[in-house]
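Predict structure. Chain length: 389.
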Amino acid sequence: MRFRPVFLVVLLLGGFWYLTSYSNLFHPASSGPALIDVGGPTSPLMLTEAHAQPAYDSEEVGNIQVYKRALPSVVNITSSAVAYDWFYRPVPQQGQGSGFILDKSGHILTNYHVIADAEQVEVTLSDKHKYKARIVGKDAGHDLALLQIDAPNLIPAVLAGSKDLIVGQKVYAIGNPFGLSGTMTTGIISAIRSIHGPQGAPIDNAIQTDAAINPGNSGGPLLNSRAEVIGINSLIATNPNQNIEQSAGIGFAIPIDTAKAVLADFAKYGRVRRPSLGIVSLPIQPDLAQEMGLAASHGVLVQRVLPQGGAERAGIQGGREQAYLGNIPIALGGDLIVAIDGQQVASTQDIDDIMNRHEAGDAVMVTFFRGRKRMTARVMLGEARESQV
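Prediction complete.
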């Protein structure tokens, strides 16, 4: 009997030790969310954490694949020049842009305006290695420039075509916006339209996109969903009431087919010899054709022929009667071109596509209406100048 009090004391102490050591009564969070003691009188902070990284969805997988495939071919370009202040003291200036590798020999395509006034050009690859670049070709009219570096193990970009692009098609832009290298943005093709480039020359079939393009993206690739280059990012639309140049959801890229034609001229002549009919023209749609009383519902109305151009030598005629299309002055009475070499022409873009398959000095058969009379003429293509096709 004398051991009973001792036994009861041991039992009570053992029960208390068990409850405090193993029971959830005093440790309610041991099997639930993690507890973080943040101190003070507040309740413990309880976090709910994922058990595993979720799988990427199909769109994310596609984005990741495009980035991994294209990034090694994209470069950052830094151009250096010297300006002078009011006291004629030299002031170093730098500009930044993007570009992409064309071949293992180190040729790189970018915009002309990225390197236009540069005295020195430096290229930084995706692996952060830097190389001095030399300018081997310039085309201010198409806002394109060809550089070359001496570097090992280069990964060229894959070039697609731009003839059959469709509005709504998904696109990607990779470049160096605001100096942030390796940046990718996504969007769609918003439109295909002719615009005027930074140097004022027309860019036919320009690819309009809502993918974010900012200063520093110039010269970088616009890619399709297979990571193939379809255009060269070149300019953005900005709010004229603001002095800040930044993305407004309206960017433009030079079509890669235009770049291929320019590169072919660089390779063959060492300069650009883009072919041209030697006309200034106006595309005609059915409603406009009906209003003007034209003989066909589609075509390109010749506004004027350029002196010594192929069209003038072939006897094609421009307009003689001045009129207005909205607020835009036009000339009526010129020939209406409807086909070249048997291929229907409904816009200046169609002519540009045909010119991309020819060289200056080639001859083409032009079909046109003069009034109601259908005629043909053999036109020897000349070299393009600004504001003409």
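Summary: The first helix runs from residue 4 to 22.
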